[in-house]
Design goal:
The protein is of the alpha/beta class. The protein has a domain at 6-29 and 52-99 and 141-226: Phosphoglycerate mutase-like (Rossmann fold, 3-Layer(aba) Sandwich), CATH 3.40.50. It has helices at residues 10-17, 31-34, 48-61, 75-88, 117-128, 142-162, 172-183, 187-191; strands at 6-7, 22-26, 66-71, 92-94, 165-170, 199-204, 209-214, 222-226. Strands 1-8-7-6-2-5-3-4 form an eight-stranded mixed sheet, with helices on both faces. Helix 4 (75-88) links the parallel strand 3 and strand 4 (92-94). Helix 6 crosses helix 7.
């Protein structure tokens, strides 16, 4: 299987795989990402860095024969996908279930400078066990996110099989659980999946393998790594 190689285009790598694939990306950096604010399902736009990341993703995907594009209903996901959607004349399919995990009353709070010690300790307890702990005010843990993305994962795989290469533009925690389902990982393994704003995953369903690709500046060679990245 081709990996650890440099390719001139993503389509060249997909041609080597000889099967339709699911392409999974995270939205570009948002303004609240840049300010270290807890975001959850607050509907924030891309930052200037996020728009540069969108441009790099656009040129990476320009050669790919995409057939369908799914996004969440949040603007940072939609903005990331919109340019390639318009270029290829593929309508965006917006799915509420793809939106990021809800973080309850903590949405909008600074990650680095909490307003009080009580809040800092409560949020740290969540970070220590995101699989099970639920933040107050309508928050979700990873098990709850996993439940709502199970049906979308089935839809994505059906789209790949029936239509061709399919792009999904999701969010960090949502994408963790998508990869958990695709690869049959435990919740602990799924939690450890990393999905930064400049990373593309390619999942080949027939061989049940995933590959990671750093989204670089236009014109750079594309380097393929087998497997998924893990959090530090």
């Amino acid at each position: 299987m081709p990996h650890n190689q440099a390719y001139r285009s993503l389509q060249e790598f997909l041609d080597r795989l000889q099967e339709n694939c699911l392409l999974l990306v995270r939205h570009g950096e948002s303004d609240w990402n840049a300010m270290d604010l807890i975001q959850g399902q607050q509907d924030r736009p891309l930052s200037p860095v996020g728009f540069k990341q969108r441009k790099n993703l656009f040129f990476l995907l320009q050669s790919v024969t995409l057939t369908r594009i799914f996004t969440s209903t949040l603007q940072r996901s939609i903005q990331t996908a919109l340019a390639i959607s318009e270029e290829k004349k593929i309508p965006l399919e917006r799915m509420p279930a793809l939106s990021e995990a809800k973080l309850g009353i903590f949405e909008g709070e600074s990650k680095v400078s909490f307003s009080d010690d009580f809040s800092r300790k409560m949020y740290q307890a969540f970070l220590d066990d995101e699989i099970n702990v639920i933040l107050p005010g309508g928050g979700e843990n990873l098990k709850m996110v996993d439940m709502r993305i199970a049906q979308p994962v089935t839809i994505f795989l059906e789209a790949v099989e029936s239509s061709g290469h399919t792009l999904v533009v999701g969010h960090r925690n949502v994408n963790k659980m998508i990869i958990r389902n695709l690869l049959g990982l435990s919740f602990e393994q799924g939690y450890r999946v990393e999905h930064e704003n400049n990373l593309l995953y390619v999942y080949a369903p027939k061989i049940q393998q995933i590959f990671s690709i750093e989204i670089s500046s236009p014109g750079a060679l594309i380097r393929i790594e087998p497997g998924y990245k893990e959090i530090d």
